[in-house]
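User: Structure please.
Assistant: Input sequence and predicted structure:
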Amino acid sequence: MSVDKRQIAHRPSEEHLLSRDHPEIEMTSSALDRSLEQGESARSAQVPGHEGSASKNQPRVQEQYTDNEDIQGLHRLESVGETQDSEIPRERPIYKWLTYAPVTNTTAIFFNTGPTIINWLSTAFLFAFIFASPFTLYTLHHSGPRLSIITASILILVGNWLRYAAMRSQPASFPLAMVAQIIIGLAQPFVLSAPTRYSDLWFSPSGRVSATAVASLANPFGGALGQLIDPFLVNAPSDIPNLTLYVAVISSVATLPSFFIPAGPPTPVSPSSTHLRPPIMKQISLLTHSVNFWLVFLPFSVYVGFFNSLSSLLVQFLTPYNFSETESGIAGALLIVVGLVAAAITSPIIDRSKRYLLLIKALVPVIALSYLAFIWAPPSYNIVAPYLICSVLGAASFSLVPVVLEWLVEVSWPVGPEVSSVICWAGGQALGGIFIVISDALGEGSNGSPPYNMHKALVFQAVIAISVVPCALMIGWLGGGVRNRRLEIDKGAVDRSGGVEAGGI
């Protein structure tokens, strides 16, 4: 296979882009060259029939885009990645979190306690994310997504069966159930933060947003199952142990594919996947010193937090207005299912157009207005209103998640995808736990009209949701120009080789 050296000579080097955008990172030419040579030697040993070695300025990934045969090989690698992506059991942690949320009142009777105490099963689950986040970041950075997902599978298995043991104790042990819920919560960051790292490893620029969407949004799919199915399975408090058993069995089966996920593709799928990353602390410093990062981090964290809070408290928002747990569960399912469908439509479009920022600025106001409209949904006493608003809110929220996560990877390059993902999800889960506590405290008592309504909590979430809209609208204005740096590296190889078209920014 021959490569036009003139193409390589005009390609901007990683060292040049790094030094231009982040002069504080010292990457000498010799260090970068040694890294590329070592990577080429390793790949040559792994790929049968690979002849020769790359020159110092010619990593093998450049060759992957230079003829039709190698482009077909890249597509085959992405097909394998898509298969593995669909097998990653990310639906499991959120189903465990929302196991009891759709049947909060019935669960409270089972444990002979109140809904506020049951809410702590969700709150503790979310706060556990924070504790496990540093370990998740270390695992994803040093070992990749495979070990991270296997770790989550083990924690979920232990937590689920321990939770079932708590239900079968005589009497049922709420403390043991809480410990089990925390163990399952510790698994959450290991799968929720992995999609961007996984898509960066397995997919070219033409498929990363879709891959991140599939992997990230399979997690809420489990929540939709819980919201929809649980109220039909639980007709009395005595059904809670059986519900827990069903969830444990499903989880045990769902963990099996985790142990067969390969560590990575045999060869890099894009030039950016071969670059030399700074140390973790340097990456965190680069990210946190970016104004544009904070402008998108705040609305992302707030909206993830309110989504978690709304999913956990939806029954308590609606039942004071004579809606049943089943109707509340259907509203929660619509929140998620419609969101999944919308994300399936928008993600491939963004993959082709790369118009990340346009969609972010369009969706953030829609989400804020949805929370504002939801204030009047329960008091309408018409279930159509919650159904409609939850559908719109879910469509906007789920479309936003993969786009924000991939956009952050693009603009924060050379910061690794796992860094921005872990930090953003940690912010969202932390605020989710805080919002649940605040919303529960704002609920009315038996003297309310109607009793136990949570109108003040709905007003609270609307006010906060609207207050962060300007942050998203100021991206590119307050934080300076926005460039898709990772895409620039990939286009340096793609566009100049006459191969796959990367699309416009």
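The mean pLDDT is 77.
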